């Protein structure tokens, strides 16, 4: 029965065009299966090994979601291609200067970041992760990667943009704004619902 259910889930997951949504779907549903088994007599039949194995599968799908959904936006915050040294220095280390970095390129990266983040926010705020603990752990996992990268990028390259015109056009968000917006992800909001 469990194998048939898993096969059914795999089939349904292929209906999603967005691979990150596919992983979220599988994560949600396998998590539900694990939780249901743990709370029932099925645990005696399937055993602790089954539960542990499927908890790892849930985590794998969460990691895949994070990698697929957030890789492009994190590239915007990378120093690769920005510095004349080819980006071999660690990002955000105090005392490093921004010489050799094009203001236009930093602006372009920030503009791309804003567009991508707003798109992710709009789409993924509509997605649902019903389990509160799972939803919070997923948000936290994203925040732990995104926020330090953003803070570091802004600390290092923000002054290049802030000294020019229309800085707020490029640096639209503080790290706190991003964190607050991440808190809206996976809530199942509809398009017409006002933003919080």
From TrEMBL:
BP terms from Gene Ontology: exocytosis; protein transport
Protein's name according to its UniProt entry: Exocyst subunit Exo70 family protein
* Transmembrane annotation, as ranges: none
Q: Which organism is it from?
A: Solanum chacoense (Chaco potato)
Protein family according to the UniProt entry = Belongs to the EXO70 family.
Q: Which residues form the Exocyst complex subunit Exo70 C-terminal domain?
A: 1-183
GO MF term list: phosphatidylinositol-4,5-bisphosphate binding
Tell me the function of this protein: Component of the exocyst complex.
Q: Which InterPro entries match?
A: Cullin_repeat-like_dom_sf, Exo70, Exo70_C
Which PANTHER family does UniProt cross-reference here? EXOCYST COMPLEX COMPONENT 7, EXOCYST COMPLEX PROTEIN EXO70
One GO cellular component, as annotated:
exocyst
From which residue to which does the signal peptide run? none
Keyword list, A-Z: Exocytosis, Protein transport, Transport
């Amino acid at each position: 029965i469990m194998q048939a259910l898993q096969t059914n889930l795999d089939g349904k997951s292929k209906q999603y065009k967005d691979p990150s949504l596919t992983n979220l779907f599988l994560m949600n549903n396998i998590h539900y299966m694990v939780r249901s088994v743990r709370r029932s007599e099925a645990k005696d039949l399937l055993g602790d090994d089954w539960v542990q194995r499927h908890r790892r599968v849930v985590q794998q799908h969460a990691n895949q979601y994070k990698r697929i959904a957030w890789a492009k936006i994190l590239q915007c915050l990378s120093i690769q291609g920005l510095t004349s040294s080819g980006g071999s220095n660690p990002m955000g280390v105090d005392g490093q200067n921004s010489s050799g970095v094009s203001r236009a390129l930093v602006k372009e990266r920030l503009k791309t970041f804003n567009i991508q983040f707003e798109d992710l926010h709009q789409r993924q705020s509509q997605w649902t992760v019903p389990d509160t603990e799972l939803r919070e752990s997923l948000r936290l996992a994203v925040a732990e990667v995104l926020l330090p990268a953003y803070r570091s990028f802004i600390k290092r390259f923000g002054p290049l943009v802030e000294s020019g015109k229309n800085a707020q056009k490029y640096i639209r968000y503080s790290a706190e704004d991003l964190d607050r917006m991440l808190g809206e992800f996976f809530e199942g909001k509809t398009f017409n619902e006002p933003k919080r």
